[in-house]
Amino acid sequence: MMSGSALIIVTSALVGLVLAPGPQWATLPLACVFFGMLVITYPASMLMKRIGRRAGFAFGLSVGVGGSLLTTFAILERSFILFCAGLLLIGVINGFGQYYRFAAADVASETYRGRAISWVMAGGIVAAFLGPGIATWTWDLFTSAPYAGSYVSLLILYIVSMMLIFFAKIPRPSPEEKSGPARPLSQVASQPEFLVAVVSALVAYGTMNLIMVATPLQMKGCGFDLVSSASVVKWHIVAMFLPSFVTGHLIRSFGVIRIMACGPVLMVFCVLINLNGITIVHFTCALVLLGVGWNFLFVGGTTLLTEAYRPAEKAKAQGLNDFLIFSTVAMTAVSSGFLHDRFGWTAINWAVLPAIGIALCAIVWLDRRRRVMLSSRVA
Asked: Which whole number is the average pLDDT over 227-239?
C-alpha cells in the first residue's frame, strides 16, 4: 500500500500538469486519493468491526485493483476526470490500509503496542525505494502515454497484497468488541488524550502534505527533472519510516509525550531550511526533517489514541480519528497546488508554522496536566 502511495506522490502532480485544464489543478488527483480515504475511513472501521480486519483489507484491495486499471486507461485516453476517478478508488484501499497499524496494536500486548505500531510503519522503508523506483523505471513504458506504465505497476502491487493478506493471522472481533459496554462517541472524543492525539496527527499529516506535495512542483519550477524529484521524495519517505525501528522503543523508554514533542521542533527546522534555499541539498534535508517529525507525531499520536477507548469503542474512535486526519489531508492536498501556483513556495512554508505551534502547545498542555494529576494522586 505504501509503495503505491509513494509512486502516486511522485507522479500524480506531474500527470496532473499534463492532463489538467490549468496548473492550479495539478494536485487535484492526489487530493482525490485523500478524499477517497476520507469518505471510506469511518465506514471501513465499522465494517471491519463486523467482518474482521482481514476480510476488510481484502475488500479494499479489490477496489484498488479497479482504481489502478481506471487510472491507466485515463492516462492512455488523456482524461483528467477519469484519472481523478481512478485515484478516488485507490483512496479506498488506502483508507482500509491505514488500519494495518491498528491491526498490529490489536494483536500486541499493552507494553509492546507502541513498538508493534512502529514496526508496521517501518514497512515504509521498502516503500521509499520501491515506489519511486517503480515510477522512474516504468514511466516511459508506453511511449505515447508517459506515466501509464507506472499505474499498470499499481495493479501488480495490489494483487500481491491480496495474496499476502490471506496469510495474516488477525483475530476476528471479540464479543466484547462487538457488544461490550461503550460510552457515547462525544464522551470518548472529549478526553484530553484523544484530543491531543488527533491534533498531533492533523498537524503531522497536514504540514507534511502541504510541503511534500508542493515540493515536486517547486523543484520542477527550479529546473529539476523527475529523477531528482523522485530522489528527494524517496529520502523523505525513508525519513518518515526509518525511525519506526526505534520510535516504539523511544516511546517506551522516554514516554509518548516527550517523543511527540520532538515532532513539531523538527518540522520548524524543515521550514527554516526551505526558506533559506532551493538547491537539491535544501530540498532533501528539509524533507528528511519533515519525515522524522511526522513519524514522531503520528506514531506517538496513534499510541496515545489507544489509551482513550475501550474495546467496544475501538472501531468508532479509530474511525473518527482517521476521518478527521484525512479531512485535513484531502484539504491540504487539493490546496497545495493552488497555494503554490497563487502564492508561491515561501508562503506555503510560513503558513504551516502556526499549526505546528498549536500541536506543540497541546502536547505541553497534556504533559503538565498529567503531571498535576500524578502529583495529586501521590499527595
From this structure: 84
- 10 Å CB burial of residue 109 (0-12, 13-18, 19+) is exposed
The cell for 241 is 519510516
Question: Topology of domain 2-164+184-378, per CATH?
Answer: Growth Hormone; Chain: A; (1.20.1250)
- Can you point out the beta strands (E) in 109-264? none
Taking each helix axis from N to C terminus, what angle separates 2-19 and 28-51, rounded to the nearest 10 degrees? 150
* Alpha-carbon gap, residue 140 to 199, rounded angstroms: 41
Rounded-to-10 torsion of CA 158, 162, 168, 170: 100
Whose CA is closest to 101, among 300, 309, 266, 308? 300
pTM, two decimal places: 0.74
**Residue type for position 375:** S
Closest among 285, 277, 297, 291 to 355, alpha carbons compared: 297
| Interatomic CA distance for residues 196 and 193, integer angstroms | 5
All three cell numbers of 76, joined, read 492512455
Distance in angstroms (rounded) separating the CA atoms of residues 149 and 374: 57
- Check: CB of residue 274 under 8 Å from CB of residue 345: yes
Yes or no: say if 25 and 79 are a contact pair by the CB < 8 Å rule: no
CA atoms within 13 A on the CB side of 22: 6
Domain range annotation of the chain: 2-164+184-378
User: How is residue 141 annotated by DSSP?
Assistant: S
Count H helices, E strands: the chain? Answer: 18, 0
DSSP helix/strand/coil, 144? coil
Q: Tens of pLDDT along 119-174?
A: 787 787 888 778 878 888 887 778 778 888 889 998 899 999 989 888 887 777 77
